[in-house]
Amino acid sequence: AQSVTQPDIHITVSEGASLELRCNYSYGATPYLFWYVQSPGQGLQLLLKYFSGDTLVQGIKGFEAEFKRSQSSFNLRKPSVHWSDAAEYFCAVAGNTGGFKTIFGAGTRLFVKA
Amino acid sequence: DTAVSQTPKYLVTQMGNDKSIKCEQNLGHDTMYWYKQDSKKFLKIMFSYNNKELIINETVPNRFSPKSPDKAHLNLHINSLELGDSAVYFCASSRGTSGRWGQETQYFGPGTRLLVL
Lengths: 114, 117
Description:
The complex is a heterodimer. Helices cover 0% and strands 51% of the residues of chain A. Chain A is mostly beta strands. Chain A starts with a strand and ends with a strand. In chain B, the strands form two sheets. In chain B, strands 2, 4, 5, 6, 9, 10 and 11 form a seven-stranded mixed β-sheet that branches. In chain B, strands 1-3-8-7 form a four-stranded antiparallel β-sheet, with no helix packed on it. The model of chain B has no long low-confidence stretch (mean pLDDT 91). By secondary structure, chain B is mainly beta. In chain B, a hairpin with a 2-residue loop joins β7 (64-70) and β8. Chain B has strands at 4-7, 10-13, 19-25, 31-37, 43-50, 53-57, 64-70, 73-78, 87-94, 107-108, 112-116.
C-alpha cells in the first residue's frame, strides 16, 4: 500500500540553525515526491518536487530535499532557518499508479525560537 | 489575483443541515480536487475532476456530492451534516495533463473551516 511517514510530529529549532525534516514513503512504482508547506490559516504551497534525475532538488525559500531510493526517504533540509519558516510541512507521494492520487504524510509542525 | 478561491471561509452549522462549499480557480487548469483535513492535520483526498469528469472518488459517505459545472469550478455539497464532518476542506487544482496527473503541482485554496454543532 502507498503511504508516507513523517516521524516527527513537531520540531523546534533556533533561528539561524539548520533544519532537516524526515520523510519516508512506501510506493510500488516510481514515486513522484513533493514537499508542501502550510502556514497557519492558509492552504498548502509547493516547496519542491522530485520526479527523476538529480536526487538533490532545490526548491523555493532556500529549501532542498534529497531522494534516497535505498532508504525510501525524501528528507527536507534548510541550512539556516528563519522565523518566517514556522509552519506545517507535508511530504507527499504520487505516481501513475494508484489512480494518480497524491498521498500526504501527517505533517511536521516546525517551531522556530528566537 | 487569487488563483484558487473558496467560499465561505468559515461555516458553522447545526447537525442535519445541508450546506455547500464553492471553489473556483482562474489558472486555466483542467483538474480540480477536494481534500479534507482533520483536527490532526491529516490531509486526505476526497474527489478529483478532470474537465468536469470524475476521476477520483474516494470512500466518502454519499452525503458528500461534488459538482463541476465547468472546469473552473468544483463545488462540494454535503447533506445531513454530522459532527464528524467538522474539518477544514481544501480545494486544489492542477494543470491536468493527461497521463501525468501524478507529477503535477497542486495549487490549494485557503480552505473552508466547517464546524458542525
